[in-house]
Amino acid sequence: MSRVERSEQLSNEANLHDRADTVLLLPGLLCDGTVWQDQIPALAERGIQCIVAHYEASDSIAKMAHMALAQVTGPFALAGHSMGGRVALELVRQAPQRVSRLALLDTGYQGLAAGAPGEKEVAGRMRLLNIARQHGMRVMGLDWLQGMVHPERLDDTRLCNAILDMIEGFSVERFEAQLTALITRPDATPVLAALACPTLFASGRQDSWSPLARHQAMADLVSGSRLVAIEQSGHMTTMEQPNAVSRILLDWLAG
């Protein structure tokens, strides 16, 4: 490493300590700390405290945000994945003064669409809930997994089992509560338009659930924001491309 590169590294490390000592990590639907398991040690090596929020039996995005907010003190950086991104936007709406910077990964911002598109989404979610009720969470997860990761990773036993184990750790009742929260989700367009903190958007290049184009639309609403495509990844970017996501988050924290 050259003197210039070393100087830049030290500068970035100093910026990390100056700008974000704590990061609140918000998991998505049927996810827990497992989804952030590779990012937590990568950030900890730079002296960053990571807190993974939990939502218990919350059945609305507003309740989830309120619960997450109570799990951290003082100002903090905020990162949300999938449904966690929607919770992050609601948290910013509830306490904008406490969020120093924001990262939204593989997520969305609009409410349930009107008419046939919204009905189709609800029907798809209810189909999964019915599978879970009749056959259990793991069987439902096997069905759901088909569109969750990059197609080439469906043969990755370690990755898929980690995701399925995580899903199986949730009860059908918690699943239903989280689906209710998503179906009744608020439109966060006004929150995006009012954002004043440094904001990062990131999505798997092959994310079919939360496509890159949607993140571009969100980035267009936030002045000075940054958009990153995570290559060779579906929706579960933090687990599919953990090193890439860790690097992106460290760059985001360093500003």
UniProtKB/TrEMBL annotation:
GO terms for molecular function: 3-oxoadipate enol-lactonase activity. Pfam families: Abhydrolase_6. Residues 23-246 form the AB hydrolase-1 domain. Its EC number is 3.1.1.24. It comes from the Bacteria. It is an enzyme of class 3 (hydrolase). SUPFAM superfamilies: alpha/beta-Hydrolases. Keywords: Hydrolase. The keyword Hydrolase applies. This is Beta-ketoadipate enol-lactone hydrolase. It comes from Reinekea forsetii.
